[in-house]
Amino acid sequence: MFWPNLREGNFDFIGEEAGRGFNVNVPLDNIGMKDTEYFAIIFNILLPMAYEFCPDLVLISAGYDAAVGCPEGQMLVTPGFYCHVVQLLAGLANGHVVMVLEGGYFIPSLTEGAAMSLKGLLNDPCPLLVETSTVHRSVVEAINNCKGALYNHWNCFSVVQRFEYMHGHKLNHYCEHLVSVKYYGDVDKPPYLTRDYYPIISKLAEEDFTSFIMRFRCNEGNYKSFKGTGYAYEPSTLLHVPDKKSHSYENPGRLTKILELMREANVIESLIEVKVPEDRNDLKYCVKVHDATYVDNLINGCLTPFHDLYINDFTAQAAMTAVNVLLTLVDSVQKEEVTNAVALIRPPGHHASIANGQGFCFLNNVAIAAKYAREKYNVTKILIVDFDVHHGNGTQDIFYNSNEVLYLSIHRYDNGTYYPSKLSAGAEYTGHGPGEGFNVNIPFSNGAMGNTEYMAAFLNIVLPIGYSFRPELVLVSAGFDAGVNDPLGGYHVTPEMFGQFIYLLKPLAMGKLIVTLEGGYNLHTTGYGMLMCIKALLGESVPVPPDVFSKPVNKSAAQTIREVIAIQQQFWPSLNVMKTISDKIVHCRYEKEFREDIYCLDKYEVTDLEG
C-alpha cells in the first residue's frame, strides 16, 4: 500500500517471454529500514545477479528518497551508504558506471547522499558506517521471496536450498521460508491516490534529521580523498633461494614475475613507492607474536630445514626484511600518506605459528602487522582476509583466543586431508574464549572450485561479516595458489577474480587495505593475479570473468557455505537472511485484514515455480 500502489511492484513480476527473470522487484513493507537492510538486499540479490549478468554498462537510478529524513520514503539510510554502493558496483563493466539523479526530497540528506555517491565514483575512501545487525524480518521475507521467484532463472541462487512444499506443511520459521505473495482486496482497482496523501514530517523530526546530517557533514573522516596506492619491495628478499638439490615451488621467480608484469602494464608509474628505512628493525614486534627462542634460532641460523622449509644463509635476512616492508606500509597507510598498499614480499607467512615455521613460512607477516597496528596506532578492529588455497593455520592459532583480530579464510579442506591437514581448518572452529566468533573458516571439499564458488562465498559470508565487523584496517593474505594451473592448488580461480575480491573489500575500513603476497606457484597466474589486485587498489578497470555463475554453484561448496552461515550467524546476525525456500509460490489474498496464518486464508492459490 505505497504509491503507486501497483500489484506489478511485487516480487513475482519478474518479466515475460524473453525478459523473464530480468525484472527484479524487492518490495519493502515497513518504513524505518536502515543501512543493514539495504546491504542485505545488495549482498543477496543485486551483486550476485550483477556478477552473473556481467554487464557492459551500469546505470544507477540515483534516488535518495530512502535517505534519512525524506518524508516520502520514511527510511533511515545514511549518506555514507551511497558511497559504498557505488564502490561495490565499481568492479563491474570495467568501471563504466553512470549515475542519473532521480528522487530525494529532504535537501540535507539529498545533498550529502549525492556528494557521497560522487566520492564513490572518484575512488575516494568510503566513510565508516554503523555496524550492521539483525536484518528486519520483513526484509528477510522479501529477499527470500525474490530468490524463490528467480531461482530457476539465475545460477547465483543455487547456493540456496529448497524444500518440497505441500499445503499443511508446518513451517519452521527459523530456517524455512514459504515463498508467498500477499495482497489485500481487489487488486484490479487499486487506489491511485494523487491528492491529500503526501506525508509530512513534524518540525521536531525535521530538526533531528537535519542535526544528524550536520554531524555527518562535520565529521572530517567522512570526506577523505584518495591518496594513492603504495607499494614496497626489497631485492634482499630474493636472496632466499633453494639449493639445486631441493626443489621448491617457493622461489624468487614469484616476485620477479610480478615486477615484470607491473612494468609491462605500466602500473608502477601510477604507484607510490614506499621506501623502507635502512636502519629499520622490527624484531621486537616479531617476538610479540612468536616465541622468543624460535625467533632467536631463526636469526642465528639454528633452525633445522625439512621438506617444506628450506633454509640458506640469507633466509633470516629475507624473513626479517619481509616484516620490515609490511610494517613500513602499515605506517604509510595509518599516517595517510597512501590510502592502500601492496607488500611485494617473500617468504610467505600465514603458516608460521607461535613457535615454529611451516609451509615455506618463517615469520607470520600479517599477524605481526596486525599486532603492530594495534599497539602503535591503537587500531582496535583489524580484519584479515586469507584467500590462499591453503588454510592459514599459523594466523588462526595466533589469534584464536583473541578478539583483537577477525580472521576469515577461504581454503581447500578436503575433509581435513589437504595441507596443512588439520581438522582445525573446519567450519566449526570459530575461536575460543574472548576470540569466539572471531575466526571464520570457509573450508571447501569435494571438487575443484573456481570463480563461481569463491564469489558465492564472498557475497554470502565475507561481505556480510566484514560489514558487520566494521574494521578499521584490512590485511589481505593474498595467496594465488587457488588460481588456474597452480601446481599445488588444483582450483580454477582466474587472475581477474582476485582483482574482484579487492574491489569488494575496498569500501571497508575507510579504504585502509594492504595486500600481502602469500602463496601462488604458477608464475603467470600469480603475476597476473597480483597485477589485477593492484589495478583494483588503484581503481582501474578489472574485467569480470565471464564464467562467474555460468553454472550452478558446486553442490559441496553450496553445502559448505550454508554450514558456515548456520554456525556463524550466532555471532553475526546479518547472516540470518539465508533460509531454505519452498519450491512453490503461495498466493495469499486477504479480503479484510492481514493474518499471518496462511492455513486460514479466505482464498489461496498454489503456483509451481518454473523448472
From TrEMBL:
Gene3D superfamilies: Histone deacetylase domain. The keyword Transferase does not apply. SUPFAM superfamilies: Arginase/deacetylase. GO terms for cellular component: nucleus. This is histone deacetylase. Residues 2-120, 249-536 form the Histone deacetylase domain. Keywords: Chromatin regulator, Hydrolase, Nucleus, Repressor, Transcription, Transcription regulation. One of its GO terms (biological process) is regulation of gene expression. Its EC number is 3.5.1.98. It is found in: Nucleus. Belongs to the histone deacetylase family. HD type 2 subfamily. The keyword Transit peptide does not apply. It catalyses: N(6)-acetyl-L-lysyl-[histone] + H2O = L-lysyl-[histone] + acetate. It holds the Pfam family Hist_deacetyl. GO terms for molecular function: histone deacetylase activity, hydrolytic mechanism.
